[in-house]
Description:
- By secondary structure, this protein is of the alpha+beta class.
- The chain folds into 2 domains: 5-55 and 278-312; 64-270, no CATH class.
- It contains 7 helices and 11 strands.
- A hairpin with a 2-residue loop joins β7 and β8.
- α1 packs antiparallel against α6 (282-301) and α2 (78-93) packs across α5 (250-260).
Amino acid sequence: MQLSRPEAVTALKEGRTGSQRAVGRALVILEIATALVLVVGAGLLVRSFMLIERVDPGFTRDHVSVLQVFASNRIDTPAKRIVFFEQVLERMRALPGVIAAGGVTAMPLGEARVIARGLVEIPGQPVPVGGDGFVNTTAVSGDFFTVMDVPLVSGRLFDRTDTSTSRQVVLVSRRAARQFWNGANPVGSRVRFQFSGQQFDAEVVGVVGDLRHEALDAPAAAEVFLPYAQSGFRALTVVVRTAASSPTDLGTLKEQIWAIDPVQTQWVDRMQRLEFAVRVPPAVRQFAELAQLLRIGIEFHGPDRSVHHAARRP
C-alpha cells in the first residue's frame, strides 16, 4: 500500500501528536509523584524539627550579642591578650543595660567554631584507649556561664583569683563527669591535658551543664573548661547579655574594642538559628535530592517545551 504525500504528512502529524500526548501524560504522573515526594519530605522535616525543639542546647540564646575577635599582631603574647580581653570585657560590663559579659574560644552552634580536642589523663586511672579519652578543651573568660545561662551542677565557677600565676583549675561538663568519673563528683580530682600546645595539670573545681557545639541532634561531647587567664589563646568570641530594653547594640560593643585597639579585627557571629543548626536527617536529604532531580527533569522536558518546539517546525 502506498500513501500519497498529503496522507503521509497527516499520518506523521497524528503520530507526533499521539507521542506528545503520551509524554504529557507521563509528565503529569511524574509531577504528581514529585508532589508526593515533597509532601513526605516536608512531613519528615516538620517531625524532625518538632523533636529537635524539645532538645536542650545547654544554654539560652535570648538577648545575647556575639562578636568574634582575633587579637591583632600587636597583641602578640598570651599575657598581652589576657590583659586586652579583660579590658574589653570591663568596658562592655559598664555599658547601660548590660547584664553580664564573657568570652569563649569555641562558641556553641556559632558560625565560626574552633573546637579543640585533646586526650585527658586522670592520675590513678588507666589511660583511656582510642577515642574514649578525648574531650573538647575550651577556654572561657569573665562571666561566660552566666551570659549563656549554663547551670553550675556542683563546685564553683571561675573567678578573679584564677589567674596565670595561680594554681591551674578546670571545670568539667556533666558528660565528662559521667564518662571519666562514672557519675561520681569529680571536684577535687586532677586532670592532665593539652590546650594550644600548653600542658595542663589542673584541679577540677566545678561541674557545669553540657553544651551542644555541632548540632541539636548531635550528642554533647565531654568537655573540659579552663580559665582564659591561664591560656591567652589568640582568638576569643565575646558574648554579652543585655536587658530587653537595653540601648546597647552591636555597634556600641564594637566601639569598646576599637577604643582599646583601633586596628582590631572583629566579626559578628550571628549564630545559626537553632532550628537551622540541625543536621538534616539522611532520609530527608535523599527525598530533597530526588525531588530536585525530578523538578529539573520536568522543567527541561515539560509539555510546554515540547509543544513550543513542535510549533516552530514547518
